């Protein structure tokens, strides 16, 4: 299917999804979010080993579309927030890893999109922030929930209350991103990371993602029980046999 605001490319079981609305710095309008929702559903069916999300031009995503939001009523604002939150939750719950390749501005909804991904690799030109309070609103796409879980409550409150925009090095220091690289090396570094993950057992990586995402929302006793069950289920998959056999035979595993 052709999309107006997105580009999709798949190679070696790694899918790259590019938000392609550079004239608006990839701002998230309702149309973009609806396209993203449909696209993620299709990508889930294809089940790549890794999904990479990035933006075209100077921005990852500069935020939600302020021109569209300006005259919304309270009910329309709530519906817009619900749409964005549903799409980002959809991304978070994909059964394979998602890497945000943050090439530029990741502000407001763009920062929230990056937070919904498993890993974040940033260009040294990237900027992050939740500047919504300067517009008279709160973060609306789950930023108040994911940011504290990632960087801690005190730092998240400071960033949200002030609306301050930070650079990539500061984002790395507080744990918002996993890595920072040069703008020229971003695509290469992200692809190398994706290939490293894709070379592992997809079954084990998916189970590990479920154990982390679900388990950290539980009491530790319940989380440990979840891990134990997922660990046991791995032994019913071909990947476990191949991985352990390859280890004992001193060769690289060939996961299917």
Describe this structure in words.
With 256 residues, the protein is an alpha/beta fold. The chain has two domains: 6-198, Alpha-Beta Complex (2-enoyl-CoA Hydratase, Chain A, domain 1); 202-248, Lyase 2-enoyl-coa Hydratase, Chain  A, domain 2 (Orthogonal Bundle). Helices cover 49% and strands 17% of the residues. It contains eleven helices and ten strands. It has a six-stranded mixed beta sheet, with helices on both faces. Helix 1 (30-46) packs parallel to helix 3. The protein is globular, with a radius of gyration of 19 Å. It starts with 5 loop residues before the first strand and ends in an 8-residue tail after the last helix.
The low-confidence parts are none
- Calculate the mean pLDDT score and round it: 97
Shape, principal axes of CA atoms: globular
CATH architecture of the largest domain: Alpha-Beta Complex
Distance between the termini: 27 Å
Classification by helices and strands: alpha/beta
The major beta sheet can be summarized as: 6 strands, mixed
CATH superfamily of the largest domain: 2-enoyl-CoA Hydratase, Chain A, domain 1
Could you please say which CATH topology of the largest domain applies here? 2-enoyl-CoA Hydratase, Chain A, domain 1
Range of strand content:
15-25%
- How many DSSP helices? 11
- Name the helicity range: 40-55%
Task: Tell me the name of the CATH class of the largest domain.
Answer: Alpha Beta
Order of adjacent strands in the largest pleated sheet: 1-2-3-5-7-10
The string of secondary-structure elements, in order, is: EEHEEHHEEHEEHHEHEHHHH
- The total beta strand count reads 10
Domains, number: 2
Radius of gyration: 19 Å
């Amino acid at each position: 299917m052709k999309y107006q605001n997105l580009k999709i490319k798949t190679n070696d079981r790694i899918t790259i999804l590019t938000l392609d609305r550079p004239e608006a710095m990839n701002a998230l309008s309702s149309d973009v979010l609806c396209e993203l929702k449909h696209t993620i559903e299709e990508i889930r069916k294809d089940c790549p080993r890794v999904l990479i999300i990035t933006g075209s031009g100077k921005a990852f995503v500069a935020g939600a579309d302020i021109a569209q939001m300006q005259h919304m009523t309270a009910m329309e604002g709530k519906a817009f927030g619900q749409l964005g939150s549903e799409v980002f939750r959809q991304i978070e719950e994909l059964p394979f890893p998602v890497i945000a390749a943050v090439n530029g501005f990741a502000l407001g909804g763009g920062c929230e999109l990056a937070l919904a991904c498993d890993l974040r690799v940033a260009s040294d030109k990237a900027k992050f922030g939740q500047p919504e309070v300067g517009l008279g609103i709160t973060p609306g796409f789950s930023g108040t929930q994911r940011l504290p879980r990632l960087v801690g409550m005190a730092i998240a409150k400071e960033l949200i209350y002030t609306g301050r925009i930070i650079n990539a090095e500061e984002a790395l220091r507080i744990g918002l991103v996993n890595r920072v690289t040069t703008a020229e090396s971003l695509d290469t570094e992200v692809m190398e990371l994706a290939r490293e993950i894709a070379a592992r057992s997809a079954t084990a990586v998916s189970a590990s993602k479920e154990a982390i995402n679900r388990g950290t929302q539980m009491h530790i006793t319940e989380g440990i029980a979840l891990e134990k069950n997922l660990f046991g289920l791995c032994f019913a998959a071909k990947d476990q046999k191949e991985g352990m056999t390859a280890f004992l035979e001193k060769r690289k595993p060939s996961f299917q």
